[in-house]
From TrEMBL:
Assigned keywords, A-Z: Cell outer membrane, Membrane, Signal, Transmembrane, Transmembrane beta strand, Transport
Keyword Nucleus tagged: no
Main localisation: membrane
Protein name: TolC family protein
Feature: compositional bias, Polar residues: 82-92
Alphabetical list of InterPro entries matching this protein: OMP_efflux (IPR003423), TolC-like (IPR051906)
Family indicated by similarity: Belongs to the outer membrane factor (OMF) (TC 1.B.17) family.
Organism: Flavobacterium gyeonganense
Amino acid sequence: MNNRNLYRILLILLFCIGKTNAQEILTIEEAMKIALENNFEIKIAKNNSKISETNVTIGNAGMLPTANASITDNNSITNSSQTRQDGTTTALDNAKNNSLNYGVSLGWTVFDGMKMFARLDQLKELQKLGDAELKKTILLKIAQVNSAYYDLVQQQQQLAALDTTIVISNQRLELAKNRFTIGKASKLEVLNAQVDLNSDQVALLRQKESYINSKILLNQYLARDPKIDFKVTDQLTVDDKLIFADLLNLAQKQNPALEAQIINKRIAELELKQVKADRYPVINLTTGYNFAESQSSLGFTSEASSRGLNYGFNATLNIFDGFNQHRNEKVAKLQIENSQIAIEQQNMVLNTQLSTAFQTYLTNIELIGLEDDNEEIAKQNLSITLDKFRIGTITTLEFRTAQLNYVNAKVRNSNAQYQAKLSEIALKELAGNISF
């Protein structure tokens, strides 16, 4: 390769470096922080959790009294006549009559078989269920952000591999042209070198397209403008120290899906307590202060008014309701049984998912070591092949094979690391242990 071509490559590399430095470097920690603040589904889940929290009040459970104010005003204009027992008659046209009633009343259920206390506990459990759903949503979205982020990391590595092969293809083309010029190679060798260079450039363009689309997808997860440009870090580090027993122990304690099933069982148990409370009497205290006033243009009384306090209590007891009480209790008990079955099923599903994901994780960790070795071997092979090609001791086909083997080895190594990272993310999501 002559000095002019070397100078040209250096200029291109400097331009690329300058352009890269101008881009925002987005770390995985920053990406997760943005997602937690901006992601639409996380925002909705947060609001749903706040709704559940807002509903936890003693008033919503029915423990507080209720007060009402009322006013009624009735007016009429009538043509009236009255005939008394002594035969006398009184008549009046357009007789005006009106009555006005207003007052306040207070009611308070002081005993309902402890249903109100069970209801308050149920509201608290519903709040916990909302928190579990929020955690589930956050874990899912953070896992998506992690997957999309490290997909970009591996794609950047693949772009670097393709950039390398294009540099090598350019060297090959220059060598072929020089050899053709001095008569040591045919025109066919130059054409083959040009075709392979074009193929590499096409592959690079396709990879750039995939890279840009993956950036847009990550921006979507971060709920920001899809046109925002950025660059991710170059390193992809996999945690290869995960232990299945530790993951299973964490999952049984903090997996949000399992946690939700446990809470659902508790809610079903509290529902049974509320149903059983209907066997007991309900006692209500009532009081109020009322004012009444009436005026009549015809009759024995032209005006009347009253005001005063009233108070009392009432009690009701369900004696027979067509066996509905027995039916409702039976249904509530079956709901508890279903909740316990759902817990056992979720435990089995979780165990299965962890087992399969962990086996995939172990395989991918092993593949990383193999692909590292393959890449190093392919690199050495390419270096030797390139030296032999320069002195003309091997064919262009052998050189191209070594070149493609090196590129494919780098791509496979990058993909192996990415797949191992996906396995790590999946395991930590199941264990409810993704850091964010």
